[in-house]
Amino acid sequence: xxxxxVLALGITAARRRNRIFFxxxxxxxxxxxxxxxxxxxxxxxxxKKRVALGLYFSNRACDPVFVRQVEQQTGQAITTCYxxxxxxxxxxxxxxxxxxxxxxxxxxxxxxxxxxxxxxxxWYCLSCGVCSLRCPSNIAVAEVxxxxxxxxxxxxxxxxxxxxxxxxxxxxxxxxxxxSYELGVIVLYKxxxxxxxxxxxxxxxxxxxxxxxxxxHVVKEKGEVRRIFERYKARCEKEGxxx
Length: 243
Prior knowledge:
The protein is mainly alpha-helical. The protein has helices at residues 2-10, 37-45, 66-74, 86-90, 101-109, 113-117, 121-124, 130-134, 141-154, 161-177, 182-193, 203-208, 222-239, and strands spanning 11-16, 19-25, 32-36.
């Protein structure tokens, strides 16, 4: 019965030419689709079938606490999303997503923690904020994506390793020098990712035009910055999370 309940949340009735149709949002193409009453009954009778939301619910566990956790961390009323698709329509990185922005929000609503946190879309998000500006429910979708990315990293759901390694390289350099050092970030990322010979074609132009400095700029209070990282690491170890 869980599949039937989930499907009922995602469809709304519409009347066309004195016939009842059910309108739903397809997660694969993010378009509104319609089915007549007979087709909807046939779909509901087969619980192992791929349902209207485009995800398999019969063999996937749902976490009812997940949506409350995300709402508490982000301060957003995610349950008010009604799948209009404006966030997906305006997303400049949507072409690279395996789950679109509205699919991510819908997955959070349904408690699909494993599927949401394992999505590569969390790591390809640009945090540009277009989705947040276009949301008629005033949901800061970009903040939700950012929070989900942190949750995925803390709970070892990282699905795009190079982006995570670049993130760690940047934080390591900031911890050491108190601010960003571009050349150091690049070298550290190349070592950790194993992509030693990537982007060599732009190295000489960047260096010749002095876009990258050879020496880092060290701030005076770098010890205070380092203590911030140490406190965060100690808190993660105390809570049993991945720092």
